[in-house]
Amino acid sequence: GQLEKGGYPHFMLKEIFEQPDCIHDCMRGRINVDADNVVLSAVIDNKDRLLNAKRFIIVACGTSWHAGLIGKQLIESFCRIPVEVEYASEFRYRDPVINEQDVVIAISQSGETADTLAAVELAKSRGAFIYGICNAIGSSIPRATHTGSYIHVGPEIGVASTKAFTGQVTVLAMLALTLAKEKGTIDEQYYLSVVRELNQIPEKMKEVLKLNDKLAELSKTFTYAHNFIYLGRGYSYPVALEGALKLKEISYIHAEGYPAAEMKHGPIALIDAEMPVVVIATQNALYEKVLSNIQEIKARKGRVIAFVTKGDTVISQIADCSIELPETIECLNPLITTVPLQLLAYHIAVCKGMDVDQPRNLAKSVTVE
Ligand code: G6P
After folding, report:
1. Rg for the chain (alpha carbons), in Å?
2. N or C, which end of the chain is more exposed by having fewer CB within 10 Å?
3. Which residue has the least CA distance to atom 7 on ligand 1?
4. Residue 338 phi, psi dihedral angles, 5° rounding
5. Mean pLDDT of all residues in 191-196
6. Rounded CA gap, 7 and 10, in Å?
7. How distant, in Å, are the alpha carbons of 11, 171, 241, 260, 286 from that of 229?
């Protein structure tokens, strides 16, 4: 059955490898066969309410909150509506300013996280329109929302969330595209290129998964580490946060994700020859700036593990190790770059002999405060 490990040693690895199929399932019936149009029916059905929103507020916890940070960038850039991203636990207790013109997006894999559910109830009581992005069908959060879209990635068993994250980002991209087209805020050619590229993501993820052996090998050299820094900018900043979270959850190595440009305001003080620094340095508008961040780390003898776009010849000269990833459009890059970071965390934890599916102190779904 679906709940077995299917030949994989852990659910987490199985779920990482399922991602190409999951993203395919997530897009099924939403992107048309010609890959030139995407429709999330919940967006169309609630068009009036969504098109008139003055603001979106995304509430979530943990990994789902990281997906929310990517959602913010997608919705702001495609739809030109301001988006705030809040930890559900903070939002619910600070008497937030919220009204009938707000749309709240609640993101939750389990659909049962107590803080996210409470944030939904609060926002609903103030008249906001609530859109859920969940995985578990019929769970509490989808039942409490006005509408929503399931991510359809199948049951996630590993405590560390993997396929739910990429499913959430995929739904957020489809939501932003559907809404932007209705609003007329997105350039037609650009819209087409994003939809086509989205359709290509499962194939590109398969390519990334071929790096598994290489990442397993690399991981052996990091079992000594007590700390890790993860850096990224723009769409890669939430990916850095997510990469760091995966590592700390299952390997118990302290890891911090940071926006690369903020490094000079603190974390740079931590860098010495013992400090591994994972940098998401794929080709994008901020490539040159990330390159200079890498030079700053190398000048302080940090060990740089760089994730670059295939064919990169510059960073591979400077980084201690560089891993080439397939090229994609900047706004969808998280769907590619997250996967090797999941694998890196997984293999480091396995090398350390940790129970990756059941990490200490953590629960798959947190139904109490
Ligand atoms: C727990 C899990 C995380 C998850 C978070 C939010 O902490 O261990 O993996 O990201 O809850 O869960 P949700 O089901 O609301 O997405």
Report:
1. 20
2. N
3. 62
4. -65, -35
5. 98
6. 9
7. 26, 28, 10, 10, 19
